[in-house]
Amino acid sequence: MNNKTKLSIFILLFLSFIGSAFAQDEPLMPDVAFKFDAVVKNDHVLATWTIANDYYMYREKFHFKSATPGVILGKPEFPQGKMKHGIKPDGSEGMVETYMRKVTINIPIAKSSGSQLKLIAKGQGCAEKLGICYPPQTREKLLTLASASTSTESGVSALNSQLGLGGNDSDEPMSPQKAFQFNARAKGNNILATWTIAPGTHMYKSEFSFKAKTPGLKLGTPELPQGEMKQGIKPDGTEGMVEVYEHSVTITVPYTLSNKVDGIEIVANGQGCNDKVRRRRLQARPQQAKAPVRHRLPPSLHRSGTSSAFSRLPSCPVWP
């Protein structure tokens, strides 16, 4: 191979490299950089933006509206974004709250009178490495709402269904003792408090508390495992994102004893709901259960018991 041929090959390879580099620096088309999709789940719309690598979207620039008469959307619920220094929507630089890779926004359906919803979604984002921002993007999607037949039950049957009551054989929800079974044992200087949670129900992480009933017994700060974030009924009866436990949860409660005793007694409190009950506006509010559980443990700390002394308060859906 002569020098002229080698030089020609080198020039071709160099130009190919330059072309590839420029191609990588080309901004993506908006539909590729910011992919949109939406689904209906019960009485909410879950709107998802899938964001390309090295791109981000502004939290404050998301907007949603219904283009269908008779369908009204509630206030969107956003997950926490990431604060970063970048280009603001107005073109200046500063700290902005953004989302990268993927974000799902929960939009309540406040009112619906048909079987379909034409959703109009708006958002805006930037290409971080390129330092450019796109104009606001608009997406539309036609969604099918929950079948009207699921909401047209009448009389006592409909009310029982919405309150999570049983059929004709029973007019009471599952008892709290069955829905949330409590057990406790001790290991070393810790009490291991376990709640077994019935299928279709959950318990709130924020609502657990423990109280010592034995003189000389002092309880430390409970150590709660990480729960699951989900859309549902909050402990105060409103809707939103809550951290919950399903199936079971074991909470570690440190303790110290200043007296010699034959056993120790604690009261454990927890609160939970039935996540299968579809909550609708204008319906009567079902029940919630708050369960003080008195539990006595001997010095060997091997014995456990069952929950008791539940009180019911009107607020949120509970039992299936």
How would you characterize the overall build of this protein?
It is a single chain. The protein is mainly beta and 320 residues long. 12% of the residues lie in helices and 45% in strands. The chain is built from four helices and 25 strands. It has a six-stranded antiparallel beta sheet with strand order 18-19-15-22-23-25, with no helix packed on it. Strand 10 and strand 11 form a beta hairpin. The longest helix has 22 residues. The C terminus is likely disordered.
What is the string of SSEs from the N terminus onward?
HHEEEEEEEEEEEEHHEEEEEEEEEEEEE
Average pLDDT, rounded to a whole number, is 74
Measured by DSSP, the beta-strand proportion falls in 35-45%
Query: Quick one: biggest sheet?
Result: 6 strands, antiparallel
Counting DSSP E segments of at least 2 residues, the number of strands comes to: 25
**What is the overall number of helices?**
4
Provide the structure class.
mainly beta
Keyword list:
320 residues; mainly beta; 5-stranded antiparallel beta sheet
SSE layout:
Blueprint: H1 3-24, H2 30-33, E1 34-41, E2 44-51, E3 55-58, E4 63-66, E5 72-73, E6 82-87, E7 93-99, E8 102-111, E9 116-123, E10 125-127, E11 132-133, E12 137-144, H3 155-163, H4 176-179, E13 180-187, E14 190-197, E15 201-204, E16 209-212, E17 217-219, E18 228-233, E19 239-245, E20 248-257, E21 264-269, E22 271-274, E23 287-290, E24 293-297, E25 311-314
Antiparallel strand pairs: 1-2, 2-8, 3-7, 3-10, 4-9, 5-8, 6-7, 9-12, 10-11, 13-14, 14-20, 15-19, 15-22, 16-21, 17-20, 18-19, 21-24, 22-23, 23-25
